[in-house]
Amino acid sequence: MDIQPSRRRFLAIGGLAAAAVALPGTPAFADAVDGLANGSSEDPWDRADRIVRSINRPRIPARTVSVTDFGAAGDGVTDCTQAFKDAITGLAAESGGRVVVPPGRYLTGAIHLESRIELHVEEGATILFSTDTAAYLPVVFTRDGGIECMNYSPFVYAYGKHDIAITGKGVLDGQASNEHWWPWTGKTQFGWKPGMPTATADGAALEDMANRGVPVEQRIMGDGHYLRPSFIEPYNCERVLISGITLHNTPNWQLHPVLCTDVIVEDVVASSHGPNNDGCDPESCTMVLIQGCTFDTGDDCIAVKAGKNTDGRRLNAPSENIVIQDCEFLKGHGAITIGSEMTGGVRNLFARDCTVDSTELNEGIRLKTNSLRGGFIEDVHIKNVTMKQVGDAMLLVDFFYGEGAGHGFNPVVRNVTLENVTVGKAKYPVYAVGYADDHISGISLRDIRVANAANPSVIENCDNVTFENVVVNGTPVTIS
User: Fold this and answer.
1) How far apart are CA 335 and CA 324, in angstroms?
2) Do residues 106 and 66 touch, judged by C-beta distance below 8 A?
């Protein structure tokens, strides 16, 4: 069966016949998408509509089993790891279907999905993930901070699969806390105390291995090391759906699809306030739709990524053709962020009809990079966004994040547009500062209202900046 959207969304677009001439994987579609970066005069929002129409949902057979049929008990105490494994592998052997988690509290270790499997967590069901690190061994092929390695398994994981889904109105609770996983940051606010281990040495060792070209299979972390896994991570998968679920207490990034094609994240509540608890981080993915979600996070709400530094240049895999719509952003750092792990490049990102409904978010649109990341950010289009308040800037383009300037891989940032954006309060409307030898190119603002800005925009080393109908503190602002 085709998994349908949990609620219908009607787009103001033309007939479906247009999709037939521009499907993913066809020359027509590739030419249409490439046209935006090559100066196409087509309205970018027509392009966004085409991307949405063209993303393929997983096809899951209409076969259903309950995890309780395989010995799972919803008492919050019984270890259900084997029951989840048996249900998934048994159903996969019959060409796939839906594994249902009924109401109750189910304790488990890592859950690994197979092709054509849907994990359906019913309302009233909670999957509790073990706090025992051994429950996420053996190590698997993954990424940490944009660098490939062998590490603890993400809590829900799939590698090289197709047609997979995680659905339902239930809860996935990682049980991470100031006692489990979070202290590895080395930060006292997350439970670290002097004498406890941290991830600092492991992170440096992993980057060194990447710089030296050590094969990924030899970059072994896991037991005895302190790099925290992501919560949900489909890696190198096709046709992925994550719909309806609520996430709590995650060890690291919450939703982290990597090298995936045709990804839909819809109606998800990503609510976790631990360290690096980004809401959704599509990395080196293409054809991604994020819609109807609520982000209440300990870091960036959505952060689009594409590998880091030497490893990112080795893989050279961009994130592209991404549409974000009808989302709500609460606490966090940036609402919609690109980077800083964006060495493979990010292009063709569209965000519309979103709300920043918080007084505790730092930036609205946040592009962060530096001269060690390199790569590019191009063709980013934002419209119809309301921001109650941001602590820093409505739009931040940050070339000085992390390592900053002088490392030989200057980034390219060009063609960023904001249209019909309303902000209640901000420190800056725009803060965009390029390098003297590497200018930002093409920032366009139209129909922008910032009711209360503490400071004027800061725009330096930028070319082709245009303001049209931009009003700040009640006064029209132009660029000379």
Assistant:
1) 11
2) no
In percent, how much of the chain has pLDDT > 90?
A: 90
Q: How many CA atoms lie within 13 A of 4 on its CB side?
A: 6
Is 92 contained in some domain?
A: yes
Cβ neighbors of 418 (< 8 A, separation 6 or more) are 365, 382, 383, 385, 394, 395, 444, 445, 446, 448
CA within 13 Å, CB half, 417: 19
Q: Are 49 and 383 in contact (CB under 8 A)?
A: no
Name the E strands within 215-308.
232-235, 238-243, 246-248, 261-266, 269-272, 286-291, 294-297, 302-304
> Percentage of residues in the chain with pLDDT exceeding 70?
91
CA atoms within 13 A on the CB side of 139: 21
Instruction: Note down the domain range covering 26.
Output: 18-45
Q: Which of the four pLDDT bands, split at 50, 70 and 90, describes residue 427?
A: very high
pLDDT interval class at 42 (50, 70, 90)? confident
The DSSP output letter for 81 is H
* DSSP-assigned letters across all residues of 338-359: E-SS-TT-EEEEEEEEEEE--S
Examine residue 97 and state whether it is found in any structural domain, yes or no. yes
Residue 4: pLDDT over 60: no
pLDDT category of residue 17 using cuts at 50, 70 and 90 = very low
**Closest by CA position to 336, among listed 361, 316, 319:** 361
Tell me if 293 sits within 8 A of 270, measured CB to CB.
yes
The answer on 77 and 32 residing in a single domain is no
- Which pTM value belongs to this model? 0.92
Please compute the mean of the pLDDT values over residues 137-156 and round it to a whole number: 98
Report whether pLDDT(159) > 70. Answer: yes
Residue 55 DSSP class: P
Strand residues in 292-427 grouped as ranges (E): 294-297, 302-304, 319-325, 328-329, 332-338, 346-356, 361-368, 376-387, 393-398, 412-426
Preceding amide of 340 cis, omega within 30: yes
Question: Which tokens belong to 141?
Answer: 């092929």
Q: Which tokens sit at 292?
A: 């109807």
Let me know whether 330 and 278 are in one domain: yes
What's the structural domain count of the chain?
2
SS3 439: coil
pLDDT, one tens digit per residue, over 380-414 is 999 999 999 999 999 999 999 999 999 999 999 99
Return the bridge partners of 107, or none.
79, 128
Q: Within 10 Å of residue 82's Cβ, how many Cβ atoms?
A: 13
